[in-house]
User: Fold this.
Amino acid sequence: MFSKKIVIRYTPDTVQQPVIYQLVKQYNLVFNILKARIFPRREGVIVLELSGTKDNFDHGVRFLKDMGLKVESLSKSVSQNNDKCVHCGACTAFCPTGALSFEKESLKVVFDPEKCNGCELCVSACPVRAMEIDLL
Assistant:
């Protein structure tokens, strides 16, 4: 079973289309909605964890792109700016998935984008705004 977290960006023209339904029906993919900001006739974004066979996942993503949706890996939307980070560890207390952890040996905050669900708690917790999330 293949699983990956993706960000889908809707345009005002595509927001009314039942694309998630099509991923389930046509491509036999299982989804978990991690975050969504979707409004009628406006741009929107949804963060999903999609699971299924790698082949079905690839075909499903191709379908989304053919529909005019922008699809990217969640790890491309969330990042740790190491130039800003002072490695205080404040963000680690708020991260519900363990994507941010404090490495005792190096005394640095380490970010694992594969564990991130895009909840944005790290953004408000970081006093120097070293966590950068672009979901819109």
Summary: The beta strands are 2-10, 30-37, 44-52, 70-73, 78-80, 100-103, 108-111, 131-133. The two ends are 29 Å apart (CA to CA).
